[in-house]
Design a protein that fits this description.
The protein has 526 residues and is of the alpha/beta class. Helix content is 23%, strand content 22%. The strands form five sheets. The chain has an eight-stranded parallel beta barrel with strand order 1-2-5-12-13-14-15-16. A six-stranded antiparallel sheet has the order 6-11-9-10-7-8, with no helix packed on it. It has a six-stranded antiparallel sheet with strand order 17-18-19-24-21-22.
């Protein structure tokens, strides 16, 4: 079995030049060569910020960059035709495409409606913060630019639970519409009931809305041919709804439709509970926070237990592991960026081990020029190559020290010269005696990721003494294969394609607002 890798195909501050679909299409052969098996593409439909928005302030999901709406025809990433071409280019290279699906919220309604609503305590959504009163809400969506093509469904306040803006008083808040209630099968560990997130909150319990979202999903799969989904903001949407929605689409297509969801919680029990009710994979948020903590702990994090209470430990088949993403990068709502010094080690922990489906972040592979010019992780193309070519066979763990841990993969017959040894630390360096398997008896291993220069001789029983310096990780492979590593050439190819990409800084907006046509939004909350 080959080692798959997902790529998150964007970061938050990509330039709004309309060229990203073209970039991904051009990158497709290189990504395939690097071992990328799937690409999670950003939201492809029109959002309230038109050609500027990242895609989570959804305006019209039927508009993939085809209609003049919200001030532009194209989205931030390009036109519908370019999007479909990028999908075909990736699939032609043997890469599956995952569409980012955002069903929880809407922004940018064309008209206001007078609605009876109750102010709600933002810190406890089960408590009123005032008496019911009439508000003016941007909840009427007619999509005049699309003129009912593909769908003649028009949205009004009855399609939503509530909103966060009263246009008549210009007061932000959380407003629950008359006769509505928050869904019960959502996260309740925060804010009493965390159904409401931002914008106008879609009421997926309504039959008309559920049918519209189901028809849209079937249309989207037919038009785009994507292979699966990344689902946004799961903790804020009815679990029962997503179970029905996915079942409908899988039955309609007769396909598995690999799906990974974002359930943002550091508690693995929350993720396990969700997986017990909805058939999909989830991003391993608990592991992300273990990596983030380790990078900020000044050597105080117990690396021997770095995988304790993570999804990859509990449910390895359904865990998508990651180091960072668009929400954790600087200036975002979930900012928790793993420190640069630890990122190579963090990627070793997800790329060179047996369990989990690792997801590489676009910003780590290509860099994030804004926010202090965050560099690309220089070792990442090499680590991806090591996963693709050498991280096979039985795994031997040496997670037995608080600051110095290691593991080996023994290799297998299907991948000649495969096998890898890893040792890493968040404090002082050291050496670990580890077994790479009897198949490597008498061989010599060399450090190819890290700073160790001393070769490691493997004894007759398959053991060797593997070292790493302070505050780093080292990966070793057999000496015979070192000259065949291609990461430098691949890195040059990537740089040639994306060197012109600069990420202009957007201002961070700490207040959730409903983006009516004359207002914009520059962040995504959780």
């Amino acid at each position: 079995m080959e080692n798959g890798m997902m790529l998150q195909g964007f970061s938050w501050y990509l330039p709004a030049d309309g060229a990203h679909w073209k970039r991904l299409a051009e990158l497709a052969p290189t990504l395939a060569h690097m071992g990328v098996s799937s690409v999670w593409m950003p939201p492809a439909y029109k959002n309230s910020e038109g050609a500027e928005g990242v895609g989570y302030a959804v305006y019209d999901p039927w508009d993939l960059g085809e209609f003049d709406q919200c001030g532009s025809v194209r989205t931030k990433y390009g036109t519908r035709r370019e999007y479909l071409s990028a999908i075909r280019a990736l699939q032609k290279s043997g890469i599956q495409v995952l569409a980012d699906v955002v069903l929880n919220q809407r922004f940018g309604g064309e008209e206001c409606e007078d609605v009876l609503a109750t102010p709600i305590n933002p810190a406890n959504r089960n408590e009123q913060a005032g008496e019911p009163r009439q508000i003016s809400a941007w909840t009427r969506y007619r999509f005049p630019g699309r003129a009912d093509k593909y769908s003649d469904f028009h949205w009004d306040w009855r399609c939503f639970h509530g909103t966060d803006w009263d246009e008549s008083t210009h007061e932000p808040g959380v407003y629950l519409f008359d006769g509505k209630h928050w869904d019960e099968d959502v996260d309740k560990s925060e804010n009493g009931n965390y159904d409401y997130l931002m914008g106008s909150d879609v009421d997926v319990s309504g039959p008309a809305v559920e049918e519209e979202l189901g028809r849209w999903g079937e249309w989207y799969l037919k038009i785009t041919g994507v292979d699966g989904f990344r689902l946004d903001a799961l903790k804020h949407i009815s679990r029962a709804f997503f179970h029905r929605w996915l079942t409908r689409l899988r039955e309609a297509t007769g396909k598995e439709l690999f799906t990974v969801g974002e359930y943002w919680s550091p508690e693995v029990e929350d993720l396990e509970s969700y997986l017990g009710e909805v058939p999909m994979s989830l991003f391993d948020v608990p592991l992300h926070y273990r990596l983030f903590d380790a990078s900020n702990s000044m050597g105080e994090r117990d690396l021997a237990h770095v995988f304790d209470d993570t999804l990859v430990q509990r449910e390895p088949i359904r865990a998508v592991t990651f180091v960072d993403n668009h929400d954790t990068q600087p200036n975002q709502a979930l900012q928790s960026t793993v420190q640069d010094w630890f990122k190579p080690s963090a990627y070793m922990l997800i790329l060179l081990r047996e369990a989990g489906y690792p997801c590489v972040f676009f910003g780590d592979l290509f860099g994030i020029p804004n926010d202090g010019n965050i560099p690309a992780v220089a070792e990442l193309p090499l680590l991806m190559e090591l996963r693709q070519r050498f991280a096979f066979g039985p795994q031997n763990d040496y997670l037995d020290d608080a600051n110095l841990i290691g593991w080996t993969r023994e290799g297998d017959d299907a991948h000649p010269m495969s096998g890898v040894a890893v040792v890493l630390t968040d404090a002082e360096g050291g050496t670990k005696r580890m077994c790479v398997g009897a198949r490597h008896a008498g061989a010599t291993f060399c450090c190819v990721a890290g700073s160790e220069e001393k070769d490691v001789a493997i004894d007759d029983e398959g053991y060797g003494e593997f070292s790493c310096g302070g505050g780093c990780g080292c990966a070793y492979v057999r000496k015979e294969v070192v000259s065949s590593l291609e990461h430098d050439r691949v890195l040059h190819s990537i740089d040639r394609i994306v060197r012109k990409v600069q990420e202009p800084r957007y201002e961070y907006c700490p207040i959730s607002v409903n983006a009516a046509p004359h207002r914009t939004r520059s962040r995504k909350g959780k």
